[in-house]
Design a protein that fits this description.
With about 80 residues, this protein is an alpha+beta fold. A hairpin with a 2-residue loop joins β2 and β3. The radius of gyration is 15 Å and the shape is elongated. It is built from two helices and three strands; from the N terminus they run αβββα. The longest helix is centred in the last third of the chain and has 26 residues. The chain starts with a helix and ends with a helix.
């Protein structure tokens, strides 16, 4: 079970990270030339060694995790 402390720690990490949205750009899928990267409001993040699926997961986690935290909090109130 996820403790309240663990949930707070996750929430704190999200709040310290660069604000969203983050968008994954994959060469050949989202643009024609250059490297794969995650675009954030503060600049691009380039990953080395991950798969394209890893990159998509990381980019989406910036908006997915806050939604999951809110859902957990909502469910715990009921």
């Amino acid at each position: 079970m996820l403790t309240d402390t663990e949930l707070k720690d996750i929430s704190d990490r999200i709040n310290k990270a660069t604000s969203g949205p983050w968008k994954s750009f994959i060469e050949g899928r989202d643009h024609e030339s250059g490297s794969d990267f995650i675009q954030t409001p503060d600049g691009d993040i380039e990953l080395i060694g991950g798969t394209k699926e890893d990159q998509d997961f990381i980019a989406h986690s910036r908006s997915d995790i806050p939604k999951l935290i809110e859902e957990i909090r909502r469910l715990r109130k009921t």
